[in-house]
């Protein structure tokens, strides 16, 4: 659970250590309460500072029976709130795996966050959402460092490279199509002109055929010589 304190952001968690419950832990002024509170704060500060870069403080809010359940708040700088949740997830998993040393005594430990019982196999994204729910337009993913982070949904993200590619590629593709169409039309016209030229060439090269059925050439004067009759020949 996330809480806001001026200049800081707080994450509420519960730690259960395998130790015998003492009724004096109900009294915040008892030596038992004070010593355990100081020892836990020191140990938690040491453990969490290894992963949380801007850890401000650990507040021990109280103890409850069930072995010993410790309610505590992790305070980080508000400027680091975007990454602190992811870092706290790593720290809590480490405590679950390795336990905690309090005042020289080692204790096995269990962690609960927002009703979620954290184990070594619990999804990091589930822990992160229990600590600090991702915003409505983001989803939890595991980054290259193995940490759970809230990232913008890919469906809503603006794909700048794709937009640039489309802006450049579409005009080029259209230009290519126009050039291709022009080349096809030019080739059609070129082939058609070649066929026309070929037909004209064939017509010009053909030999001419006389239309009147006579062979030989006509007289240059254009007049026809008729045979003379026998009577004119005798005279």
Question: Can you offer a commentary on this structure?
Answer:
The chain is an alpha+beta fold and 235 residues long. Helix content is 40%, strand content 25%. The chain is built from 5 helices and 10 strands. The strands form 3 sheets. Strands 1, 2, 3, 4, 7 and 8 form a 6-stranded antiparallel sheet that branches. Strands 5-6 form a two-stranded antiparallel sheet. The chain has a two-stranded antiparallel sheet with strand order 9-10. Strand 9 and strand 10 (148-152) form a beta hairpin. The termini are far apart.
Number of strands: 10
Order of helices and strands: EEHEEHEEEEHEEHH
- What percent of the residues sit in helical stretches (DSSP H or I)? 40-55%
Radius of gyration: 50 Å
- Biggest sheet character: 6 strands, antiparallel
**Which shape, going by the Cα principal axes?**
rod-shaped
Contiguous low-pLDDT stretches (5 residues minimum) are none
Number of discrete helical segments: 5
Instruction: Indicate the proportion of strand residues.
Output: 25-35%
User: What is the residue-averaged pLDDT?
Assistant: 82
| First-last Cα distance | 151 Å
| SS content category | alpha+beta
Keywords: Membrane, Transmembrane, Transmembrane helix
Region (Disordered): 199-235
Protein name: Fibrillin-3
Transmembrane segments: 160-184
């Amino acid at each position: 659970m996330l809480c806001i304190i001026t200049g800081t952001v707080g994450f509420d968690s519960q730690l259960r250590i395998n130790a015998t419950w003492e009724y004096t832990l109900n009294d915040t002024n008892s030596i038992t309460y004070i010593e355990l509170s100081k020892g836990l704060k020191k140990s938690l500060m040491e453990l969490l500072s290894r992963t949380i870069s801007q850890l401000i403080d650990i507040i021990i809010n109280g103890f409850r029976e069930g072995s010993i359940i410790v309610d505590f708040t992790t305070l980080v700088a508000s400027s680091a709130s975007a990454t602190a949740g992811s870092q706290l997830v790593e720290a809590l998993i480490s405590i679950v795996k390795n336990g905690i040393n309090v005042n020289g005594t080692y204790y096995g430990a269990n962690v609960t966050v927002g009703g979620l019982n954290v184990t070594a196999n619990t999804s990091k994204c589930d822990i992160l959402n229990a600590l600090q729910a991702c915003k409505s337009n983001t989803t939890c993913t595991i980054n290259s460092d193995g940490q759970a982070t809230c990232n913008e949904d890919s469906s809503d993200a603006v794909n700048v490279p794709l937009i640039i590619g489309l802006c450049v590629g579409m005009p080029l593709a259209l230009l290519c199509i126009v050039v291709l169409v022009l080349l096809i039309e030019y080739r059609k016209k070129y082939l058609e002109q070649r066929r026309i030229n070929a037909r004209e060439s064939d017509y010009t090269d053909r030999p001419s055929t006389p239309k009147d059925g006579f062979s030989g050439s006509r007289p240059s004067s254009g007049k026809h010589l008729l045979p003379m009759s026998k009577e004119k020949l005798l005279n």
